[in-house]
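General statements about sequence and structure are easier to judge against a single worked case. For one protein, we set the task of working out the structure tokens from the amino acid sequence alone. This step matters because it turns folding into a mapping between discrete strings. The amino acid sequence and the backbone structure tokens for this protein are reproduced below.
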Amino acid sequence: MDAVPSLWQRAFDAPVEWQKVALALLPALLIAWLAAGLVRRVATRALQSIVRDTVAPSSPLVRGPLRLIGAASFVLVFGLIIAPVFEVAGLHPRTGVRLRPLATWVFDSGLRIVLIGVLGYALVRAVTLLVKRFEHEVNRGTSLDALERAKRARTLGSLIRNVSSALIGGIAILMILRELGVDIAPVLAGAGVVGLAVGFGAQTLVRDVISGFFLILEDQVRVGDVAAINGQGGLVEAINLRTIVLRDTEGTVHVFPNGAITTLANRSKDFSYYVIDLGISYREDPDRVAGVLKEIGAGMQADDRFGPVILAPIEVLGVNGFGDWAVQLQLRIKTVPLKQWEVGRELRRRILRVFDERGIEIPFPERVVTMKVERPDTGSLSSPMVPPTSAAGPATPGRS
């Protein structure tokens, strides 16, 4: 037990007076504890005003930063006041360190270093909490559209968190190095050279990432859409910050870097149309045929299977051209995304059946074949007529 007083006696100029040490430490600890509690209470209210009902107060996202802020405040305040308290109490440590210059540095550069670290951490956590709140607001709802928005929000939120953390951390480190007396000009110059080299080497990657960010932010296309990219059509299977993946009708997967996309046609955004160019005989009345087509469309809208996916009555746009053997009528029907082909196939089937019942003619080309046969007795050629055979191709091509 005598060893402890001897250590304190060697550390101080005069024999240790435990009453003075206690009187110096207790006020310092009390002031530091009160200051840390006050800072933590203010930080708690600030965090709660930011996150509101997004994150529970007992969540690690809230409790972790609050504990760190409280501990940092306690250490900071205690370190700042312990030296002056010892001076007031008449205790002069024999440490070889002059307290006044040290206290000046602590109150000046040291305080700024701590504040830079705390503010940097607080900014990173604030960005994280704001992104979480944004994702929480977007994630409300259970519809497919809400789930897709939530997926986009998570992708953008992850990018924002990573970029902001790297930016804030880099700036904080440079500011701390400057407070420690390090010349940051060579560091900035070296970072500029490295950044220039990386920029030249990764400019394609950077272009892809930036293009992908705006592709997701502007909601140009979503997973599950049918789209054509640079002339190649298919189903969108994946979208990320660097690439977009399409699968065509043959099952082939096409991967496009986002920066290489020059044209993007989304065939299933918000709604879709199925368009038919229908050929009718020149003997038919176009107005009568248009009325029959509208009846067919009304019947499909009344159908329990197809009615929910049809968004508007069928539109007969009118006579769209004159062919060699048919008058071309154009019609279209509006559907929910990705249902236009199913509706279009059923519409074609009903048109064929109803036209047959109503006697409306869908013309098609005919080919007459004549065969010449040589007679054995005379060697002359005869040309008996062979019954004509018809060669009919698709008379009503459709597109969507």
In short: The first strand starts at residue 226 and ends at 229. The longest helix spans residues 99-138.
